[in-house]
Amino acid sequence: MRRTIRLVCYFVELEGNPQVNPQDQVDGFIWVNKDYEQQGIELAGMLHTKIVPELVKQGLL
What is the mean pLDDT of residues 27-56? Predict the structure, then answer.
């Protein structure tokens, strides 16, 4: 069975340094760009194979 996943990406310009709220269940965050692999960053399967390549293709990363 084939399933559809809907994903929404939001693009913003930030001022200052974002911080993780300790009350949220988030261990941390990183910024990625189209060269993430050369920087030694590993992404989860679908991000790596589908989402980031599509964002690069559309000129968004």
Answer: 90
